[in-house]
Amino acid sequence: MTTPSPRIGPLLVALAIAACGLAPRTASAHVKWFADFDYATPPRTIAETTTPVFWSMFALSIVVLVVLVWLDRIVAAWPPASRLNDWFDVRSDSSLLVMRVGTFATLLVAWQLGTLFAPELATNSIWIERLQFVIVLLLFTAATTTLAGLGLFGVWLYGAQQYGFFHMLDYVNVLGVAYFLTLRPLKAPFFRASTLPVLYATVGFSLYWLACEKLVYPAWVNYILEQNPVLTLGLDRDFFRVAAAFIEMGLGFLLMIGLFGRSLSITITLTFFLTTM
């Protein structure tokens, strides 16, 4: 197995810094980053949530998942797909570097904005801001990445103390990233092998939880759609909201059960890019 060039690390870090400098300060994709939300708003009951549109999207989601499983098996047998899979296998050791760069960019932007790892999580603690900057520095080398992961755990716990555990369920994926950064550099095979399943599960749960919020707190999403009706693409607002929720729910479910793997990662990446655009 070939190993990545040692020059890739500094190059990716430099690209991350450039991306932070070029990124708009208001770039975001989370409902709470846009909406005037309030947890005091009564959530919808099960009877109110399970509308005909809900059941239609539920049935469609099942059909799509079955078709995707069938298509994934067909595509996996194609020589180009096999070569692509081999290409990723050769570079599997770069996963830690990719996570370091991604976390580096996220925390650097958060430190610049005076927030935690999300724009809506403002912090007035100079010590937390310093901790995030220290984490950024620790991510420069693989040898100190474990300490960076432990620090990220601390930032999440601080957020839970300030905003409440219920609020921070939106960011369970950060715990998965912290777990990955903490244990991936270790030599113990068991701990290294557990990092990707935990990362998939936490990212999947975050998507699933956001989907549930769209269903039980429709006013949060409706506020955004009222301000930006072009987002619905001409579709009925309630239909668009429920459909978006089921897309997130389906992606989150597939991540949590570990289905598709790389095929799913490409699908999710394209979905996030299209959503951002």
Low-confidence parts: 1-28
* Anisotropy-based shape: globular
Structural class: mainly alpha
Mean pLDDT: 80
Question: What is the CA-CA span between the terminal residues?
Answer: 37 Å
Strand segment tally: 0
Which range best describes the helical content: under 10%, 10-25%, 25-40%, 40-55%, 55-70% or over 70%?
A: over 70%
Main sheet attributes: strand count, strand direction, barrel closure:
none
How many H/I helices? 14
Binned strand content:
under 5%
Taking Cα atoms only, what radius of gyration do you get, to the nearest Å? 20 Å
- N-to-C series of helices and strands: HHHHHHHHHHHHHH
List the helices and strands and how they pair.
Layout: H1 8-22, H2 31-34, H3 46-49, H4 52-76, H5 79-90, H6 95-113, H7 126-138, H8 145-163, H9 165-168, H10 172-183, H11 189-216, H12 218-227, H13 237-257, H14 262-276
